Recover the amino acids of this structure.
């Protein structure tokens, strides 16, 4: 029984490509979910996947991404560090580490200028968590990586170029 | 003769390409650093975990696990098995490498059909490979140990000679052999340095990093798949999975890599 | 049923350092399979990490995050023995939740 509630809870907000999840048609999905949360079966923040910001993941420039995230023009900042390879042997896996030293950092986003869609990932930093993330992104070609930081309601950025090559034979 | 001319043109082109990237060696450190960063949190760990579960899972028509599988150090001994493979096994009467031995165990202990086991051995987004997971787990259990292939028996010595012969055998439309790319120092293809597999240093650096997470594929691959890929890149006919050819060539490389410290699963392009 | 993640949570001073490897294809929706058909996008859209009932990180991802995603972050407020729970949800509605116990610092 628990499993079904979890599935419904997890799917309740899904609407992908215009197709509604079947669970919504069953009706009562939300009521079941509310009941489950009230009964302590599911913790609220785990039940609802964050609303995925489709608009932000559809943009093709840093400026458009910031707009989609609800911000104004970002200011370049020396207080953001990007660690990424100068040359990536394979664009499929490029390790990126971003550290923000700007006080009151709320979120960190990774943008890849020349990718089909600019925004790769966005991280919300709650209080108590370091403004630091490490992840790996795909790069279609040599491009600037932009670390976009939202701190105290304002946006900041720094760029780093990563050259993407096609390696040798894969050995 | 057109053939000879073609070869000359190809050689010239290769030489040109080789000199064109002669400055690239300066990037080798950067590349090595990058690979190191990826290896510290290697996606291959996911395969290692799956392989460990597969080793003890009761599977196949006989509903048996691989716990009695003898990889050369006795039934069920996994730690240290990889560094002494390939080797001769008396129950099959032949020299076998890791995957060939896993096939034997799956067939005899678990009752699986050989055709089923060797069909589709390389994973893809559409299908997982049990072989790759098991090989990753087993090789991982030799981490930190030195390669120690011993050619004690005549069968092993013969297999080594065969592997060496295959290594130097030139064929295919480019008239390539393994030796073409891997027979001397300081060769490279684009940004990638090519190890000299006939010498200990090159063989060690190449062999001890497999199985590896191949970034381009997003999958873990074994030494066998790397060899199969080399065959493809040379436009050779496909090499049969778990065949004697693969075992012989693997034995040649493994023995040349003796003394090298196993560091698998690694990360490769 | 999605494959398990590999989570490592260790103390680094007074902070918890978390490293996660997730098992996911992260299909961009641009790849064609062997038969020439386009493989539909299938990727993790959101990740939530909690410790002691508090969210310590939440993320939204697009298709440009690498296959078999890796994530590392650090937070204060956990101690050895506490659990870090991580959940991912993908664009098909699949979810996966795994947890790890925070390890004491190496002696």
């Amino acid at each position: 029984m628990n499993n079904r509630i979890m599935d419904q809870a997890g799917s309740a907000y899904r609407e992908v490509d215009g197709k509604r999840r079947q669970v919504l048609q069953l009706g009562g999905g939300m009521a079941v979910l509310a009941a489950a949360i009230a009964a302590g079966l599911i913790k609220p923040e785990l039940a609802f996947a964050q609303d995925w910001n489709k608009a932000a993941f559809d943009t093709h420039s840093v400026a458009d991404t910031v707009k989609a995230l609800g911000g104004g023009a970002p200011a370049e900042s020396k207080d953001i560090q990007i660690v990424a390879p100068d040359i990536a042997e394979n664009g499929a896996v490029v390790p990126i580490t971003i550290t923000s030293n700007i006080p009151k950092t709320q979120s960190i986003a990774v943008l890849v200028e020349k990718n089909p869609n600019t925004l790769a990932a966005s991280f919300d930093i709650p209080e108590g968590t370091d403004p630091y993330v490490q992840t790996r992104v795909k790069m279609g070609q040599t491009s600037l990586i932009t670390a976009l930081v939202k701190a105290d309601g304002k946006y900041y950025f720094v760029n780093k170029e990563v050259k993407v090559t096609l390696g040798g034979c894969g050995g | 003769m057109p053939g000879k001319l073609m070869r000359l043109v190809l050689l010239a082109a290769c030489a040109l390409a080789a000199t064109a990237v002669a400055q690239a060696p300066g990037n080798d450190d950067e590349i090595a650093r990058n690979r190191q960063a990826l290896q510290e949190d290697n996606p291959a760990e996911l395969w290692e975990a799956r392989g460990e579960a597969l080793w003890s899972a009761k599977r196949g028509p006989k509903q048996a696990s691989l716990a009695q599988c003898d990889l050369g150090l006795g039934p069920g001994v996994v730690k240290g098995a990889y560094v002494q493979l390939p080797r001769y096994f008396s129950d099959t009467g032949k020299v076998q490498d890791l995957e060939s031995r896993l096939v034997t165990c799956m067939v005899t202990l678990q009752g699986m059909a050989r055709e089923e086991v060797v069909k589709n051995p390389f994973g893809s987004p559409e299908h997982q490979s049990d072989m790759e997971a098991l090989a990753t787990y087993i090789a991982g259990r030799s981490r930190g140990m030195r390669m120690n292939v011993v050619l004690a028996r005549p069968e092993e010595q013969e297999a080594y000679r065969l592997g060496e012969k295959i290594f130097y055998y030139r064929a295919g439309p480019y008239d390539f052999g393994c030796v073409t790319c891997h027979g001397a120092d300081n060769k490279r293809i684009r940004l990638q340095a090519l190890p000299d597999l006939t010498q200990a240093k090159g063989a060690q650096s190449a062999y001890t990093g497999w199985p590896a997470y191949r970034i381009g594929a997003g999958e873990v691959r074994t030494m066998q798949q790397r060899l199969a890929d080399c065959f493809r890149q040379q436009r050779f006919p496909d090499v049969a999975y778990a065949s004697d050819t693969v075992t012989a060539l693997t034995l040649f490389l493994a023995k040349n890599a003796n003394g090298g410290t196993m560091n698998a699963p690694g990360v490769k392009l | 049923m999605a494959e398990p993640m590999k989570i490592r949570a260790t103390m680094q001073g007074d902070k918890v350092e978390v490293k996660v490897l997730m098992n996911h294809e992260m299909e961009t929706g641009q790849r064609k399979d062997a038969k020439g058909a386009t493989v539909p996008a299938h990727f993790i859209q959101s990740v939530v990490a909690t410790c002691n009932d508090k969210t310590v990180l939440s993320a939204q991802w697009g298709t440009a995050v690498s296959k078999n995603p890796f994530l590392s972050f650090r937070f204060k407020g956990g101690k050895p023995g506490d659990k870090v729970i991580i959940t991912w949800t993908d664009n098909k509605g699949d979810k996966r939740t795994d947890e790890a116990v925070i390890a004491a610092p190496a002696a």
